[in-house]
C-alpha cells in the first residue's frame, strides 16, 4: 500500500509483541482537526495509521513503536493494549458530531490495510477489534455503522454468527462470565453488553441480555463461528 508519511511525535517503545489491531473513528468535526490533534505533542494521543474518507492512508507512527490510541483498556487478559496493538483511526465525525456511514473508498483502504497488518504480524481474527470492545465504559467507536461484515467475509475479523444458533439459556451473570471468557472487561455489565451488541448485533444496542445475544455469544465461543458471509 502507499502511505502519506505524516509523523506524530506521540509514541514510545513497545513492551509486548503485536497481537492485535484496534479500529477507531476519529470522532472530530473533520479529518484535518483529527490529524492535527494526533500530531500535537500536548494532546498525547496518536495512532499508527489514519484513513481519510477518500481512502487516503496516512502513516503516523511506525509499527514497531507504541502509539497512544487505546487509553485505559483491556482485551483477553492484555491491559497494555497500546503495547500489543496497531491502531487505525478512521475519519468519521462520530456520535458527537454527526455519525454517518463510512464511504466505500474508505472501507476498501481499511480492508487492504488490515489485511497487510494481519498477515505481517500473524494476528488472529478474534484480536481485530473496535475501540468500544477494549474500553466499553468509555468508547463507542467505530460504532454500529461500521461494516464489520466487509472484514469478516475476507477473514479479517470474526463474523456475526447466523447459522445453527442455539440459546444456552444463561442467566445475566452467566452471560457476563461468557462475555469475559470471550475477551471483554465485564466490570460494568451493561457497558460490556452494549459493546458486544454494537459489534455483533448493531441494529439493537440496548444493554439487555436477550436470547439473540446469548445465541450469538455461544456461537462465537465455538471453534468455528458460522457467519453471515
From TrEMBL:
| Keywords of this entry | Cell wall biogenesis/degradation, Hydrolase
Residues annotated as domain N-acetylmuramoyl-L-alanine amidase:
6-143
Q: Tell me which EC number(s) this protein carries.
A: 3.5.1.28
| Cited Gene3D superfamilies | Peptidoglycan recognition protein-like (3.40.80.10), PGBD-like superfamily/PGBD (1.10.101.10)
Name the domain of life this protein comes from: Bacteria
Signal sequence region: none
Top EC class, one word:
hydrolase
Which is a Pfam family this sequence falls into?
Amidase_2
Instruction: Give the reactions, separated by semicolons, that this protein catalyses.
Output: Hydrolyzes the link between N-acetylmuramoyl residues and L-amino acid residues in certain cell-wall glycopeptides
Task: Name the PANTHER family on file.
Answer: N-ACETYLMURAMOYL-L-ALANINE AMIDASE AMID
Q: Which family does it belong to?
A: Belongs to the N-acetylmuramoyl-L-alanine amidase 2 family.
Q: By what name is this protein known? A: N-acetylmuramoyl-L-alanine amidase
What species is given as this protein's source?
Sphingomonas albertensis
Amino acid at each position: 500500500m502507499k502511505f502519506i508519511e505524516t509523523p506524530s511525535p506521540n509514541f514510545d517503545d513497545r513492551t509486548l509483541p503485536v497481537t492485535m489491531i484496534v479500529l477507531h473513528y476519529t470522532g472530530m468535526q473533520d479529518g484535518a482537526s483529527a490529524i492535527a490533534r494526533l500530531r500535537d505533542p500536548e494532546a498525547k494521543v496518536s495512532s499508527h495509521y489514519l484513513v481519510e474518507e477518500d481512502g487516503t492512508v496516512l502513516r503516523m507512527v511506525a509499527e514497531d513503536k507504541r502509539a497512544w490510541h487505546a487509553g485505559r483498556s483491556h482485551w483477553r487478559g492484555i491491559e497494555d493494549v497500546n503495547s500489543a496493538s496497531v491502531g487505525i483511526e478512521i475519519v468519521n465525525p462520530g456520535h458527537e458530531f454527526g455519525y454517518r456511514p463510512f464511504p466505500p473508498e474508505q472501507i476498501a483502504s481499511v480492508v487492504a490495510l488490515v489485511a497487510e497488518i494481519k498477515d505481517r504480524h500473524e494476528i488472529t481474527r478474534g484480536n481485530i477489534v473496535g475501540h468500544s470492545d477494549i474500553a466499553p465504559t468509555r468508547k463507542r467507536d467505530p460504532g454500529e455503522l461500521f461494516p464489520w461484515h466487509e472484514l469478516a467475509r475476507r477473514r479479517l475479523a470474526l463474523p456475526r454468527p447466523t447459522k445453527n444458533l442455539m440459546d444456552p439459556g444463561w442467566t445475566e451473570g452467566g452471560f457476563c462470565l461468557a462475555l469475559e471468557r470471550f475477551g471483554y472487561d465485564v466490570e460494568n455489565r451493561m457497558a460490556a453488553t452494549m459493546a458486544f451488541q454494537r459489534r455483533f448485533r448493531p441494529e439493537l444496542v440496548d444493554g439487555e441480555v436477550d436470547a439473540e445475544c446469548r445465541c450469538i455469544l455461544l456461537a462465537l465461543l465455538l471453534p468455528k463461528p458460522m457467519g453471515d458471509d
